[in-house]
Fold this sequence. Notes:
Elements: H1 26-37, E1 40-41, H2 53-64, H3 78-92, E2 102-105, H4 107-119, E3 125-130, H5 134-142, E4 146-151, E5 153-155, E6 160-162, H6 165-171, E7 176-182, H7 194-207, E8 210-214, E9 239-244, E10 257-260, H8 263-273, H9 282-291, H10 296-319, E11 323-325, E12 332-336, H11 345-356, E13 358-359, E14 361-362, H12 370-373, E15 376-380, H13 385-396
Parallel strand pairs: 1-13, 3-4, 3-7, 7-8, 8-9
Antiparallel strand pairs: 2-10, 5-6, 9-10, 11-12, 12-15, 14-15
Helix pairs in contact: 1-11, 2-9, 3-9, 4-5, 4-8, 10-13
Amino acid sequence: MTAGHAAAPGGRPLLNRRLAEFGTTIFAEMxxxxxxxxxxxxxxxxxxxxxxEAVREAAVRAxxxxxxxxxxxGPGIPELRRAVAEHQHRFYGLRYDPDxxxxxxxxxxxxxxxxxxxxxxxxxxxIALEPYYDSYAASIAMAGGTRVPVTLRPxxxxxxxxxxxxxxxxxxxxxxxLILLNTPHNPxxxxxxxxxxxxxxxxxxxxxxxxxxxxVYEHLVFDGAHHPLAGFPGMRERTVTLSSSGKTFALTxxxxxxxxxxxxxxxxxxxxxxxxxxxxxxxxxxxxxxALALPDDYYTGLRDGLRARRDLLAAGLREAxxxxxxxxxxxFITTDIRPLGATDGIDFCLSLPERVGVVAVPTQVFYDHEPxxxxxxxxxxxxxxxxxxxxxxxxxxHAGLPGLSGN
Length: 407
């Protein structure tokens, strides 16, 4: 699932060698397969219902009132920067100056790219938890860094993935620049505990490392709690925290994200970000500012509704014969396909739409050590209950057949 190596007339490959290993994202490939086959798409993590009507109407008002239709300020509109700062204090007790410590981005994906382009020099090592969201590897490559994976390992007994803190410590070398942390974690659904995060923080302080934390699923925690790394001793001055509106408000197409950190860190990230999109999503920024002020019952309702859908899909997958790792957070359930007689997730997912009418994503594409992820497949449960019920019916209709082959 990598790009070809087309060459210019002079013979040199057209694609920058840093990106030669990257092609069309797995999400685009599997979503296109869903469209082509008419299968239920439980691959890409986008909801099939739109976010709150009041938030959508706020965007309409902004467009009609001429707010954001022209270039908004480079750091983001003041209303949204204040709303982000208030959100961080409201939920976590963290105080940020909206004028100097908040930066609005084109979703968290741009925030990741801008942070790594700003903070990583060629030759620097970046530790990331494996399996990881595919843009991490590409952004590290574009910055000229070297990615160093630390693998979250499945524990069948507990039905979870766990971080080996000794492995993390051993991965740090003299060339390590930063740790790129994602919690709640995509694709495994792991939510790092307070004790685990405290150990990460101690390591960063001890070895003088920066941290970039992707917290886009911060409000989608079903078991345990989310603890921002920036809140731990010694971490505020060395942590770039990233989040976005897409997952929290089911408005993934708006691409409104943000960065929080010290003035020095935010200035560095902004220096890179201004040459990427410069600005984006003007009217949507006003709407997201209103969304962040929604009452607590919105956030608890979001969490409880997704927990119910997680449980529905998890039970159905178990009944269909999958090994299920119950996620503590996010949109996703990781499954083991070996109980079905299958061992290669890519082959399994490429044939599943035609055979069963359901799309999933092979997690091995999120690994440097692909064999470690080969037998695992990710399903998204951020869909309507009737869609999940139908997907379960299709999968269970083939239960007991080798690899859910249906023949």
